[in-house]
Amino acid sequence: VINVEDFAIYVGGSYALLSEVNVQDSGSNGIQVGWTRSGVTISNSYIEGSGNTTDTGVFLEGGPSYGNSISNSTVIGYGIGIFAPTNASVTGNYITGSITGIRAEENSTVSNNVIYATTGVGIYLQGNNCVVTGNTVRDAGNAGIAVSSSDYNTISGNNIYNPASDGIGIYNASADNNTIIGNYIYDSSNANGGIR
Fold first, then answer.
1. Is 160 exposed, middle or buried (0-12, 13-18, 19+ CB in 10 A)?
2. What is the pTM of this model?
3. Given the DSSP bridges, would you call strands 88-91 and 68-71 parallel, antiparallel or unpaired?
């Protein structure tokens, strides 16, 4: 799907499989999954935007959805690379050229992704009971991993290189009972701090 004015692909049903999809120069979101849709798998795909900073590479609309998965895909040039609001798995993806690499919310797992050269936050977490593990974030234009108003999350085994702000930042006084363990933050000499 090349050079379309609106979203490239819209998934309006549950239990869909999208594999080896090629999206280039989409005018809006690359792949959009409808509200409350569950069991959607997106894998081994290439999704490149037109540079519009208000759009998202893979956008799960949210609602009470379960079992959605985005894996082993490349996402380039969006405001948010992947947005996974509830009960989703985001694993093994490569994301670059976005403002925010991955945004996740309730009960989601973000694992083994590589996020490179975002102009903002590498991984932005705003939800409870998530696991963020084994990711590599390099050259983020803000914090490597940012947590806001979120409780009972586990952030472990991530590698963060050269963030422009904090390596890992817990922002907002209402963020409680989060576990941060075994993360490595390198070359944060230009950052505000390693972990805040």
1. buried
2. 0.94
3. parallel
Question: 3-class DSSP state for residue 20?
Answer: coil
Do residues 92 and 107 touch, judged by C-beta distance below 8 A?
A: no
Query: Are residues 11 and 18 in contact, defined by beta-carbon separation less than 8 angstroms?
Result: yes
Please tell me the distance from the alpha carbon of residue 69 to that of residue 48, in angstroms, as a whole number.
19
Which residues, in sequence order, are CB contacts of 102 under 8 Å at separation 6+?
A: 80, 81, 82, 83, 84, 90, 93, 95, 110, 113, 115, 122, 123, 124
How do the pLDDT tens digits run along the chain, 196 residues long? 766 666 789 999 999 999 999 999 877 899 999 999 999 999 999 999 877 788 999 999 988 899 999 999 999 999 999 999 899 999 999 999 999 999 999 999 999 999 999 999 999 999 999 999 999 999 999 999 999 989 999 999 999 999 999 999 988 777 789 999 999 999 766 666 787 6
Strand partners, 41: 17, 69
Q: How many CA atoms lie within 13 A of 168 on its CB side?
A: 22
Q: Which two tokens stand for residue 78?
A: 């969006």
28/4 Cα distance (integer angstroms):
8
Q: How far is CA 122 from CA 42, 125, 138, 143, in A?
A: 21, 10, 8, 7
